[in-house]
Design a protein that fits this description.
There is one protein chain. By secondary structure, this protein is of the alpha+beta class. The chain contains 5 helices and 4 strands. Helix content is 29%, strand content 11%. A 4-stranded antiparallel sheet has the order 1-2-3-4. This is Knr4/Smi1-like domain-containing protein.
């Protein structure tokens, strides 16, 4: 997984997947992507960066189930009253975490939980019922796609045991385009 340079094969597969997805927003163009990055103090990982600039800024027909939201958007079911998201602060996790089973007191868990939802990732979309897909843009898992739900969070990809797919945005899109289950963990 190369987060610095878009692989032409990945881009071709992603373009093909989004060509069949109806209702996508037009690509933002490079100036708008760079402006977003400057405001948030990040550089988006490839190939997502190129997709948003050149292919589409969102898609009504997945992935995920309710569509890929635009770069600067949040899903309609995103919690009201959540703190402002800070993409420049690192995403805190590097492995799965089921906070619902965490034995620590909530005073220790809650601050990290807020970071999982609000630091270092763009929200790609929702599966509904409080289940979101995030693309990590800052931190050790930069470029990985994460499932974040009400009970816990886990990285997507075969190396993490959550699917048979490659990790990262390209693997996530390929998995969706092939009709794979959204999560098998």
């Amino acid at each position: 997984m190369n987060t610095e340079h878009a692989d032409p094969r990945d881009l071709a597969a992603i373009r093909a997947a989004f060509a069949t997805a109806n209702g996508g927003g037009p690509a933002l163009g490079w100036d708008a992507v760079r402006a977003f990055e400057a405001v948030h103090g990040v550089v988006l990982p490839e190939p997502y960066r190129t997709v948003v600039a050149e292919v589409a800024d969102g898609s009504a027909a997945g992935p995920p189930r309710y569509g890929l939201v635009g770069l600067a958007e949040l899903p309609d079911d995103w919690g009201a009253g959540r703190p402002e998201r800070d993409l420049g602060r690192p995403f805190p996790l590097t492995g799965p975490w089921v906070w619902e089973d965490d034995p620590r007191p909530s005073a220790e868990v809650d601050p990290v939980l807020d970071q999982v939802f609000d630091h270092g990732s763009v929200v790609l979309g929702t599966e509904g019922c409080g289940v979101y897909w995030h693309l990590v843009v800052t931190g050790p898992h930069r470029g990985h796609v994460w499932y974040v739900g009400g009970e816990g969070a886990a990285p997507f990809g075969a190396e993490f045991g959550s699917s048979t797919a490659e990790p990262g945005f390209a693997g996530w899109v390929r998995h969706w385009a092939a009709g794979g289950p959204w999560f098998s963990g």
